[in-house]
């Protein structure tokens, strides 16, 4: 019997809004690799025919686990809509991405989907694009509202409210047997592995995970906040150092994403610490490897960052622009808490 895929499962459970465009977006079994997801630039320069359109997608960095899932979903949905899609790797460099945007403009793409390298460059991006009138769907890295307002009706943001993911991380800790206070000294002592500091997801997850604890009257002590830029290897090294420096004092390791949580887990295991027994570990994204670790008890929990829901809405917003219909300023997708009890349903890969 064929098992339902993670994408189909999420898609079936996604709460989608009731616009006509929503129904036009079918599921896709596309599982592109980084290389195959980059169409040739000639495809993008080909004129849109038969009601189709050329879509230029700028991803901040292909070497990002979560954005790899996201872009593969997005490519599938846009292609299912009959569009020609070109996806570029910004290589975590804003100048590179800006050049890619200029190239897309020269090619006359119909809509740009942009995951900015630097959220603070979003206004410059809009100023570069707006003279051409090309619509922009910003994804994953939320720009200031004033940026969206400066190109009203021609741009929107599709994302998830990172405050919710942070709150869920805190709740995951409160739901443990000791409510995060393993040594019973009356306070929750933690370290934090943070993503890119100018990214609102990193800021809110850092703030709201702890706020969930203090809102419930818990005393907390932060030993150190590490700037790990969403990166597994950096987090692995920092958590190894933290464990040797602070030892048993560390009761909770909060990670702004699962890539860093997976790095943290490697160091936790190397230090002979046991998640659920003498330390807790939480991430965000629900990458399959992380969910497997939740099932196996090696991670306390994670939070689903719904790549399928967000890619679906991004494709639908793109279609609204192509069809010349009205587009809202924001499209939000909910996070979901992933615990040992519900984790197995998020395990199946495409
Ligand atoms: C994800 C991270 C990812 C980042 C990229 C976040 O929403 O949780 O895993 O690295 O987006 O901007």
UniProtKB/TrEMBL annotation:
Query: What's the protein here called?
Result: D-galactose/methyl-galactoside binding periplasmic protein MglB
Pfam families tied to this protein: Peripla_BP_4, TAT_signal
Molecular-function GO terms, alphabetical? carbohydrate binding; metal ion binding
Q: Where is the Periplasmic binding protein domain?
A: 55-325
Recorded hits in InterPro entries, A to Z, give: MglB-like_PBP1 (IPR044085), Peripla_BP_I (IPR028082), SBP_2_dom (IPR025997), TAT_signal (IPR006311), TAT_signal_bac_arc (IPR019546)
Spell out where the chain crosses the membrane: none
Family to which this protein belongs = Belongs to the bacterial solute-binding protein 2 family.
GO CC field: cell envelope
